[in-house]
């Protein structure tokens, strides 16, 4: 029977996912908890980890490596950002050990880069990027554009195995606040429905977004043929269409390889649909596999020994 | 003593403002009620008007003219949109009388135009545009660009006294939902503070808005020198800067005259600040005077006689 080598955690804002992992990076057991850092009381993280996560995975004696918002100022321990450009070695060298934990517990630092006229930041996505690079030696050569869709979509340029720079688009959060709190609430409806393509068309070149967004209202009340139950799909297409049309341009890079979409399967499929519509080649990669590969790559650098 | 000629109402989503007005359009008395149509029960508008508004202004025997969301499907009576291009005569001809009201009560129709790839709509702002045109004969000659800032900012092209076309940017609503419900909540702070100019800079050409918005977060947590209490001003500058940089371009018009900002004084001052920063000439006009002038111009067309 394969032996677990370490405990891997993706501890985000909303959820905590944990795996026991063998020395080759293969997951052995997996548990998910609705215990993201936004749901914890101050100081509660250590007890959650010891009394809930470790027992659930029978991992009392394993070193643990944690990525995500656990390293933020509302997490377990604030870990300073590493600056771009950064590779697996640079991130591993700055893993921060929690005082007094035995076996060792380390938190992966977030990453900071030069964004639009100022700093940009990520926590957790850097581990998926490192994992995606670790999965295939060909990805560690040349320049690639990688997109991690989500609440805060991250678009990153990686060159020769290093994360060079990145920019964040709050596409997912715009969708959430507009469909929950604005005049665009519309009705219940499938965000993947056929009106998604109408939204892609309405995105145009992605400019004048505040005006384009209002078309989701005007087409319902002004006789434009959009039904209230189609607004969610239309808005999803419009926001993702605007993201793929404008955000990569901020990075000023042309990649010879297809854009790599790494993350949640449903979100990646929506971005793929938008990129297909724009005639841009893209490939989808599983985000969970990437985070595990990233934690394994960082673990192998020896930070917990 | 001057005699009241009619009762003028601006009945919006949130508030109801009413004036008694003399035959020359001068206001005689004014009352404001927190009784916008979003706060009414279905069917309640008629009783509010008769039992609250008329008595408060001692206007039981005056004909009344109403503009705004009272003409929407959540108002008093749904009134069909008039299509662009439209002037005061065209709008007055389609004022809809309420059955059974004596003295007469009329509701001004909203306006529909061709927006971005589909219809765009307004209800209430058309009356301010008509009023702004009525205030000065010079405005009824040639082409002018008029902006009504607000929850849903309206940018309109008027030519020779007609409203030719317009486009809506949901700039104010984006500010509201992002500062109330998103990661950009930040802290309390004056939306007119000096960080407004930093936001104008961050708006750049207004493209890639979902990415530019995230800079309001990244500059706080990533060491970019933005304080949480400055986020509101920064975000206000960013959104208004992006609006003035991109929305007029959708209308495809160059006006020889300064952009006319018609509406709430504080909002108009913010837009003026953004246009000054962009080197674009603009002049500010009082929105309340414009709505009164508009209702007076429409009343004079004789729809209530």
- What is the CA-CA span between the terminal residues of chain A? 23 Å
Count of helical stretches of chain A: 9
Whole-number mean pLDDT of chain A:
95
Helix fraction of chain A by DSSP (H/I, runs of at least 4): 25-40%
Tell the overall outline of chain A.
globular
CATH architecture term of the largest domain in chain A? 2-Layer Sandwich
Strand content of chain A: 15-25%
Q: What's the CATH topology name of the largest domain in chain A?
A: Nucleotidyltransferase, domain 5
Largest sheet of chain A: 6 strands, mixed
Largest interface: A-B, 55 and 56 residues
In total, the number of strands of chain A is 14
**Widest sheet of chain A: strand order?**
3-2-1-4-7-6
Query: How many domains make up the 3D coordinates of chain A?
Result: 2
Which assembly state applies to the chains in this document?
homodimer
Assigned CATH superfamily of the largest domain in chain A:
2-keto-3-deoxy-galactonokinase, substrate binding domain
Uncertain runs of chain A are: none
């Amino acid at each position: 029977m394969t032996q677990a080598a370490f405990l891997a955690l993706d501890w985000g804002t909303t959820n905590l996912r944990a795996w026991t992992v063998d020395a080759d990076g293969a997951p052995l057991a997996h548990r998910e908890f609705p215990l993201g850092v936004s749901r914890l009381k101050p100081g509660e993280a250590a007890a959650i980890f010891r009394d809930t996560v470790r027992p659930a995975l029978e991992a009392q004696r394993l070193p643990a490596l944690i990525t995500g918002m656990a390293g933020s100022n509302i997490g377990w321990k604030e870990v300073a950002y590493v600056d771009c450009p950064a590779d697996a070695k640079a991130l591993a060298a700055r893993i921060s050990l929690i005082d007094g934990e035995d076996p060792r517990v380390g938190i992966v630092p977030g990453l900071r880069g030069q964004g639009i006229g100022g700093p940009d930041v990520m926590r957790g996505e850097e581990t998926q990027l490192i994992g995606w690079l670790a999965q295939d030696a060909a990805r560690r050569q040349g320049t690639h554009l990688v997109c991690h869709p989500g609440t805060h979509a991250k678009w990153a340029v990686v060159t020769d195995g290093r994360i060079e720079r990145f920019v964040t688009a709050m596409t997912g959060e715009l969708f959430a606040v507009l469909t929950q709190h604005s005049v665009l609430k519309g009705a219940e409806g499938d965000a993947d429905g056929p009106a998604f393509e109408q939204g892609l068309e309405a995105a145009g070149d992605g400019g004048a977004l505040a005006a384009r967004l209002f078309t989701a209202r005007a087409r319902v009340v002004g006789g434009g043929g959009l039904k209230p139950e189609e607004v969610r799909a239309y808005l999803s297409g419009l926001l993702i269409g605007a993201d793929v049309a404008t955000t990569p341009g901020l990075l000023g890079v042309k990649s010879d390889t297809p854009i790599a979409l790494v993350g949640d399967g449903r979100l990646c499929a929506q971005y793929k649909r938008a990129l297909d519509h724009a005639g841009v080649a893209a490939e989808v990669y599983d985000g969970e596999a990437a985070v595990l590969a990233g934690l394994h790559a960082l673990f192998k650098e020896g930070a917990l020994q």
